[in-house]
Amino acid sequence: MKTFVSPGNATCCSMLSFCGIIFLVVLGMAFDAKVEILTEFTSDPDDPKLTAKACFSAAIVYACFLGFCGCQMLVHKFNSRNQIQL
């Protein structure tokens, strides 16, 4: 099996992706609920529902990265077990 990133990078990417997913889902839910602090100023987005949809889409992208890096971590673990140690 082929690895594309190092074990440390895969672990770091997985943790950051997990945190990003949580943050974006919570932010998307807040925009979807039209929380006053996020939608009351003139510089805030005109369509909070569209902003929530963008947050959820970004969370899906982060989930794809989490899946890829999680697979890379498993490949590193599998390869380290199958190495011949003398």
From TrEMBL:
Domain of life: Eukaryota
Annotated GO CC locations: membrane
Pfam families reported for this sequence: V-ATPase_su_f
Location(s) in or outside the cell: Membrane
TM regions (residue ranges): 12-31, 51-75
Gene Ontology MF term list: RNA endonuclease activity
Assigned keywords, A-Z: Membrane, Transmembrane, Transmembrane helix
InterPro entries: Ribonucl_Kappa, RNase_K
Plastid recorded as keyword: no
Record membrane topology: Multi-pass membrane protein
Main location: membrane
Record carries keyword Lipid biosynthesis: no
Protein name: Uncharacterized protein
Classification of source organism: Eukaryota, Fungi, Fungi incertae sedis, Mucoromycota, Mucoromycotina
